[in-house]
Amino acid sequence: MNTALVLPSDGSEHQRESNFEKEENYLNLWGYIKRRYPDVSIEDINFTDLVHLKVQLEGPRGLREWTGAIASVRKH
Known about the structure:
Blueprint: H1 12-36, H2 47-58, H3 63-75
Helix pairs in contact: 1-2, 1-3
């Protein structure tokens, strides 16, 4: 049984995965802030500004704790 992993030579698959991951991170953060702070307007805010807003609202918590909080919001 051959289990060799075939990687694309042009890197296009890696770029698509990276873009998907960035988009998913943005949507997760956007959804987290929207659910947790429904009165805060976050329409048309870029990812960096969302991160700064999150830090302003909650303080600089550790990334692991933040990731856990986002995951718990997504489950509901």
